[in-house]
Amino acid sequence: MRRIWAILAYLAVVAGFSGGVWWFSLSSDLEALAERGEADLSVASDRLVGQLQRFRELAVLLSDHPDLEALLNGQGNARTASALLRETADKTGSLEILAVAPGGQVLATSEESWTPLASSPYLKRAIEDGALGAYHSVEPNSGLRVSTFASPIFSQSGPVAGAVVVRADIGAIEAEWRGDAMTVAFTDSNGVILSSNRSELLFRTRTLPLPATAGGRYGGAPLSPFPEVREIVISGFELWRLDAGRYVPRASIHLTRPLPVIGMQGEALVDIAPAVTLAGWQALVTATLGLVIGAFILSLMDRRQRLSAQLNAEAAANARLEQRVRERTAALSAANKALRREVDERIAAEQALKRAQGELIQAGKLSALGQMSAGISHELNQPLMAISSFAENGAAFLERGRPERAAENLGRISEMARRMGRIIRNLRAFARQEVQPVRPVDLAAVVEAVLLLSEGRIKREGVTLDWHPPASPVIVRGGEVRLQQVVMNLVSNALDAMEDRENKRLGVSIELADKVRLCVSDTGCGIASSDRIFDPFYSTKEVGRSEGMGLGLSISYGIVQSLGGAIRGANRPEGGAVFTVELEPAEMEAVA
Ligand code: ADP
């Protein structure tokens, strides 16, 4: 709605402005036209005045002619005078020249038949006032428009003796300027057009009815008013609109110019059609320009509106998007918080687990110690028995005076004692809770120590040991006690698995690649459920038989994992199981 009002207001402004342009253009053009019209009217008036004045002056000149003077003074000859007048009329193109007595009688004339003069006002003026008389009229018979000039002839004694009357045909004069572009007309003192370069305008007048004094001046000529003339005044110009045929402008500026010398008034009708057309065109161009600019502005406004609508839509979409992002971010941060809480809980659980695991390791070790204690006591008992018998033997040999045998026995005793010392040392080390951090350890030495501890059982159970210690130490990242615990567990499990077997073969090997790989293989019963062996408390062993708690492998798994290594167990195709421990190699120099 606002838009419609704005468009209407703009159209009104354009219309007003175009009207202004029309008005300004028309006024200035009218001024120029009027100026030119005035000049043209002045030229036309001068031409008419000049031509009529010739006849006026002819009358004056003839009034002094001696022939006429003589005639009017009663001495001259009418024939001679008439001849003079005829000749003069022929030469000057006058319609008629008359010599008139004060009473109005024609004494001489240029024509055979002459127009009776009656008591015409011009004659009266010449004879009674002794002044020059001028008169414009229409001949009743011929319908000719005639200008008459009467000049007094004075008698030798002084008073007026008569007059010379020269009559000129206005039509003949007018014929010369009939084709002029501008419409020009000349009115007499009654406002009747007696001369014009447009025949349509002749005998037209704006002052009907004529005063009575006009009498028969127009000889029955068809006087008529102007057809449908309408007058308006625009910026000081009198504009006429009339319908008087195709050669008279329909719309024109009416100009007047008084011509007192010949007793007439000049009038001109300057066609304003070109000015109106020009002003119309200028107004049209202005309006078109205004409309084009308006349309342009409208389209710009439309575009702006569309653009702002688009921007609004985009802003709304952005706001929606931002809202969604906010919601999503809130949801994510909530999820993040929950996750963090969970992580914290996990870390706490892991720490608890680690603690439990540490305790379990110790518990497992103690259980292993329990398991081993029978074997170890046997292990220690045997050298003790041997020592006692070697000691007894030594004493006997000393008594028998064979000190070299006694020394041999003593040497055996000390060897046995060393062996026992080694076993006990290893046991101590095994039972100790390791607190030291991860450090480089010789894996081969660890294996040696475990095999030493298990030597008694291996021999007792008739197990063939397949172990080739490497030529040089194999250093890995670990803890001596922890690795011993792992290897001991693997060896014990292998021996357990082979207990009921005929063929008992324990294989221990160390391979060195990008990692250090320790393999413990047996020819036992094989793993019953390979995906559960590392679970805590999973055991297939009868309770009480070897006091299996199902903790050994799970503890080993935890230890190897904490050292950055891996442990896995598998059945061998030829029977039995193989356990592989992979450990990170370490630098030799780092060994303390
Ligand atoms: P435990 O020895 O107290 O049973 P472990 O965790 O050491 O507990 O062993 C778990 C189980 O894994 C054993 O009960 C056994 O069934 C299986 N297992 C371990 N080592 C071997 C092996 N070398 N051969 C066959 N089975 C094995």
Automatic annotation (TrEMBL):
Its EC number is 2.7.13.3. Keywords: ATP-binding, Cell inner membrane, Cell membrane, Coiled coil, Kinase, Membrane, Nucleotide-binding, Phosphoprotein, Transferase, Transmembrane, Transmembrane helix, Two-component regulatory system. It catalyses: ATP + protein L-histidine = ADP + protein N-phospho-L-histidine. One of its GO terms (cellular component) is plasma membrane. Pfam families: HATPase_c, HisKA. It is found in: Cell inner membrane. Gene3D superfamilies: 1.10.287.130, Histidine kinase-like ATPase, C-terminal domain, PAS domain. PROSITE patterns: HIS_KIN. SMART domains: HATPase_c (SM00387), HisKA (SM00388). Residues 375-587 form the Histidine kinase domain. Residues 304-359 form a coiled coil. It is a multi-pass membrane protein. The chain crosses the membrane at residues 279-301. InterPro entries: HATPase_C_sf, HATPase_dom, His_kinase_dom, HisK_dim/P_dom, HisK_dim/P_sf, Sensor-like_sf, Sig_transdc_His_kin-like_C, Sig_transdc_His_kinase_DctB. GO terms for molecular function: ATP binding; phosphorelay sensor kinase activity. The keyword Ubl conjugation does not apply. Member of the two-component regulatory system DctB/DctD involved in the transport of C4-dicarboxylates. DctB functions as a membrane-associated protein kinase that phosphorylates DctD in response to environmental signals. This is C4-dicarboxylate transport sensor protein DctB.
